């Protein structure tokens, strides 16, 4: 459950950075909050994630997509969220 809460918190943080902290105007945030409610995430955790994203000390998370080819010519497409794109490419 903690792993799911962590994922949802990151989702909320990314949504706030992308479109602001008002769920009425930020549909991505509204959907993330609905996901949090569906997972029975405490309201305090949701508010903390929003506050963390709007603060000056917020981490800079980015959504990145990678594509490549695996064995046998199979196409591979990876979407990920990272705070360090250089490290993510190396892994």
Provide a short characterization of the protein structure:
α1 runs antiparallel to α2 and α1 crosses α3 (43-54). The protein has a two-stranded antiparallel sheet. It is of the alpha+beta class and 91 residues long.
For this entry, give a set of tags:
Arc Repressor Mutant, subunit A; two-stranded antiparallel sheet; elongated; single chain; alpha+beta; 2 domains; 91 residues
How would you sum up this structure, described in words?
The longest helix has 18 residues, at 2-19. This protein is an alpha+beta fold. A hairpin with a 5-residue loop joins strand 1 (62-69) and strand 2 (75-82). It has 4 helices and 2 strands. The protein has helices at residues 2-19, 27-38, 43-54, 85-90; strands at 62-69, 75-82. The chain folds into 2 domains: 2-54, Orthogonal Bundle (Arc Repressor Mutant, subunit A), CATH 1.10.10; 60-91, no CATH class. Helix 1 (2-19) packs antiparallel against helix 2 (27-38) and helix 1 (2-19) packs across helix 3 (43-54).
Protein topology:
Blueprint (H helix, E strand, L loop, with lengths): L1 H18 L7 H12 L4 H12 L7 E8 L5 E8 L2 H6 L1
Shape: elongated
CATH superfamily of the largest domain: Integrase, N-terminal zinc-binding domain
Count of extended strands? 2
Mean pLDDT: 87
Strand order of the largest sheet: 1-2
Largest beta-sheet details: 2 strands, antiparallel
**CATH architecture grouping of the largest domain:** Orthogonal Bundle
Order of helices and strands: HHHEEH
CATH topology of the largest domain, by name, is Arc Repressor Mutant, subunit A
Question: For the CA atoms, what is the radius of gyration?
Answer: 15 Å
Helix and strand composition category: alpha+beta
């Amino acid at each position: 459950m903690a792993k799911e809460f962590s994922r949802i918190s990151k989702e909320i943080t990314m949504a706030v950075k992308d479109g602001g902290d008002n769920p009425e105007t930020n549909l991505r945030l509204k959907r993330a909050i609905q996901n949090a409610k569906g997972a029975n995430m405490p309201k305090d955790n949701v508010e903390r994630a929003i506050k963390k994203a709007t603060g000056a000390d917020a981490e800079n998370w980015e959504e990145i997509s990678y594509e490549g080819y695996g064995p046998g010519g199979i196409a591979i497409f990876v979407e990920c969220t990272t705070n360090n794109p250089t490290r993510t490419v190396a892994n």
